[in-house]
């Protein structure tokens, strides 16, 4: 029995390390792809997109929203590690559909300072995908925006629906 969840993680890593063999995969993604998606624990990103380990950079946050930090990660991914394609994937049933900017105010009330970041909540998946697409396509820090596409994953069917 574990005292904490992080104790369980450490024990899980010990099992993993016992069977692990260095695959010597390069740090550069084989498919030259970066995926921006939600941190939702229900999303098993690699099999969901037909990818294998080493194929793509996976960038996750609450909602899969393109934020300033996502632009930072994509810039490093493109400029230093050779990615060229970007797939933005939101999903049905996302918790960010139920959050509002009031969350930020409640944090400020609780801790006495305002978070420097926006919550980036949204009420419409497709509109937010379009906004994220625009942020990627217009960022001066990203050098390759020809193969940038956005999708909504339907959790019930497992299918991607492209947002144009």
Structure explained in plain terms:
- This protein has 164 residues and is of the alpha/beta class.
- The chain has one domain: Carbonic anhydrase (Beta-carbonic Anhydrase, Chain A, 3-Layer(aba) Sandwich), CATH 3.40.1050.
- Helices cover 35% and strands 18% of the residues.
- It has a five-stranded mixed β-sheet, with helices on one face.
- A hairpin with a 6-residue loop joins strand 4 and strand 5.
- It starts with a helix and ends with a strand.
CATH homologous superfamily identity? Carbonic anhydrase
Count of distinct structural domains: 1
Strand order of the largest sheet: 2-1-3-4-5
| Measured distance between first and last alpha carbons | 49 Å
Helix content: 25-40%
Q: Which structural class is indicated by helix and strand composition?
A: alpha/beta
How many helices does DSSP assign?
5
CATH topology: Beta-carbonic Anhydrase, Chain A
SSE string, helix = H, strand = E? Answer: HEHEHEHHEE
CATH architecture title: 3-Layer(aba) Sandwich
Low-confidence residue ranges: none
Shape: globular
- Gyration radius (Cα, Å) is 18 Å
Mean pLDDT metric? 95
Quaternary state of the chains: single chain
What portion of the residues fall into strands of 2 or more residues? 15-25%
CATH class: Alpha Beta
According to DSSP, the number of beta strands is 5
Describe the largest sheet: 5 strands, mixed
Catalytic activity: hydrogencarbonate + H(+) = CO2 + H2O
Keywords: Metal-binding, Zinc
EC number: 4.2.1.1
Protein name: carbonic anhydrase
């Amino acid at each position: 029995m574990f005292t904490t969840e992080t104790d369980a993680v450490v024990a899980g890593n010990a099992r993993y390390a016992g069977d692990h063999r260095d695959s010597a995969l390069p740090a550069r993604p084989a498919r030259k792809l970066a995926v921006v998606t939600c941190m939702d624990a229900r999303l098993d990103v690699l099999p969901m997109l037909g990818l294998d380990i080493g194929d793509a950079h996976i960038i996750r946050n609450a909602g899969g929203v393109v934020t300033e930090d996502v632009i930072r990660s994509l810039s490093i991914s493109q400029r230093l590690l050779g990615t060229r394609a970007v797939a933005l994937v939101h999903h049905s049933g996302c918790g960010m559909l139920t959050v509002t900017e009031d969350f930020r105010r409640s944090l400020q009330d609780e801790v006495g300072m305002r978070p420097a970041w926006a919550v980036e909540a949204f009420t419409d998946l497709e509109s937010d995908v379009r906004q994220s697409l625009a942020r990627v396509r217009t960022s001066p820090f990203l050098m390759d925006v020809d193969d940038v596409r956005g999708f909504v994953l339907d959790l019930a069917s497992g299918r991607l629906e492209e947002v144009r």
